[in-house]
Amino acid sequence: MPPRLYADNAATSFPKPPAVINAMQAYAEELGASAGRGAYREAVETGEILADCRQRLARLIHAENADNIIFTFNCSGALNQAIKGLLCPGDHVVATMMEHNSVLRPLHALAANGAIEATYVPADPATGLVDADAVFQAVRPNTRLIAVIHASNVTGSLQPVEAIGPVARRRKIPFLVDAAQTAGHVPIDVRTMAVDLLAMPGHKGWMGPLGTGALYIRPGMEKRLRPLTEGGTGSVSEAPVQPDFMPDRFEPGSHNAIGLAGLAAALQWIETRTIESLRSHELALSTRFLERTAAGSDTLTIYGPQNPQDRVAVFSVCIEGMEPAELATLMESEFRILTRAGIHCAPFAHETIGTTRQGGTTRLSFGAYNTLADIDRCAEALEMLAAVDLHA
Ligand SMILES: Cc1ncc(COP(=O)(O)O)c(C=O)c1O
Predict the structure, then answer these.
(1) The pLDDT of residue 352
(2) At 357, phi and psi to the nearest 5?
(3) Are residues 230 and 348 in the same domain?
(4) What is the pTM of this model?
(5) CB within 6 Å of ligand 1 — which residues?
């Protein structure tokens, strides 16, 4: 059997840089303390690791201040904090049909008891791209949030957040970006993009371990955001109310210190590699995948933008007559290629591209450690499976 080829980086990146594992092991063996919970060296050093991680994240997304980054345990936690912390009864939200369930479900939960209303802006069925003007056409006088997925986890489509942010800012509507598939993959500048809230997982493109995530909150926005949870922070412990300063206002309870030690090392690795070079690498992978699969069989469909510049390296594919789950199973059993089949937690995205009835798609998602040889192997496997006569 060939060696395993991991093509599910949109779920979580693998492998992680060796420095990540080393940092986690060093934390576990040498520190093992909870940040802000003691004056002894180990607790102080753990606090320094968290501060370092926060600073690196702030630098990488060009945030004004490290304290405007709060840690969460995944991207869903960051999105829930942003959405439920901001919206009030009577508010209207504009989101897109390409959103992930970690945006759709909080919005539906708030809408279920009539508290809010949401409009989902359609995307182009061929590319999965949303038109910035259509976003603003959906705005109402009571619109209190525009929420846009930066890149689709189904089609890879990169949405025009740079065009949406500045207009939303002028119209004083908070702008939330779900950067689950772009943080660590494409350059992000929250200031030029005029983003108010940016949700990120630490465990995908940022290359950190599972159990890490973060939310950027633009300075001033923290006053408009209610914390979803309260608890101990190790600061102003004499007060029975949550501190109102950042980041403690949104970080009750003990941190995932071992995870954040890993994330800090991952971010250092990214800073050394640079986001620009990671994006170039990913563009080369996308270009190769699109070229190799374009020449293939008529029964193979690759969804999403055909121009690599308009996408990240997340590809939904389908072979006519083969169920997505069957294709994923064959990719693993025959070729040792790990993919993911189904709806990928984005039901409206499948409605958009017309793949709901067939049970979604099979998704191949590439990351920093994938090579052009990996892409060739995936393309060859898809070509061979597309050539199988399913009726024989
Ligand atoms: C676009 C998008 N948003 C949000 C999430 C949720 O991320 P997490 O699993 O870190 O909560 C994902 C996860 O796949 C995603 O792809």
Answers:
(1) 98
(2) -65, -30
(3) no
(4) 0.98
(5) 10-11, 74-76, 100, 102, 149, 153, 178, 180-181, 201, 213
